[in-house]
Each structure stands twice: as C-alpha cells, then as structure tokens.
Design goal:
Elements lengths: L8 E3 L5 E3 L2 H5 L3 H16 L3 H4 L1 H5 L4 H32 L17
Antiparallel strand pairs: 1-2
C-alpha cells in the first residue's frame, strides 16, 4: 500500500476502497466481545425458553430453536470478527514484507 493511503477500509473486487464501520474502528475489541457475550446469554436463555419468551409460546412458536440459532449466529460472527481483526493486525503491524524487491539483474557485478 502507499504510505499516504488511508488504511481504514477494505478493498473491493473492482479496486475501490470500502469504508469500515466507525464502531469497529473506535472499538475493535468491544465488538467481538459483545457478539460472544450475546451468544453466551442466548445459549443460557435457551434452557429457560418457556419462562423468558411467553409471547412466542402464546403463538405456538417453539423458542428453543430461535435461541439456539441466534446464539450460534452471534458466536460464529464474534469468532470471525476476532480472526479478521487478528489477521489485519498481523498484516498491518507485524509482518513487513517487501512487495517489490529489486530484481537480481542489477545486483550482478560485471567483470
């Protein structure tokens, strides 16, 4: 990337930069923590679905699959956000790889 280019976005297929969400930029660790804690809460709530969600029981909708599916979606989203954040961190700060090394033609000594 160029030194002057803003790195707060992701590259789209056509080469344009997509801006990142402001909440993710300001709180990079809070977002996956919220997703994972929501997954834990819905996982615990799945054991008490009849008492916690009486409106769904009134309409005859089973609340257990709703809680389990919401907990799994939140948990997987939180894990994916953590993995993406770690990959971006390592890519941005840890691994400094030369993208355009000098060609070997110029390094030979002529006799």
């Amino acid at each position: 990337m160029n030194q002057g280019q803003d790195q707060s976005g992701s590259l789209l297929a056509d080469g344009a930069m997509q801006p990142r969400n402001g909440f993710l930029l300001r709180h990079p660790l809070l977002t996956p923590l919220l997703f994972l804690s929501g997954a834990a809460l819905f996982g615990i709530a799945s054991g008490f679905t009849d008492t916690l969600f009486p409106v769904l029981a009134f309409f005859g909708v089973p609340a257990l699959p709703f809680c389990i599916s919401l907990a799994s979606v939140l948990g997987l989203s939180g894990i994916l956000i953590c993995i993406i954040h770690m990959v971006e961190y390592f890519d941005r700060y840890c691994f400094k790889i030369a993208l355009y090394p000098k060609s070997k033609e110029h390094s030979y000594v002529s006799n």
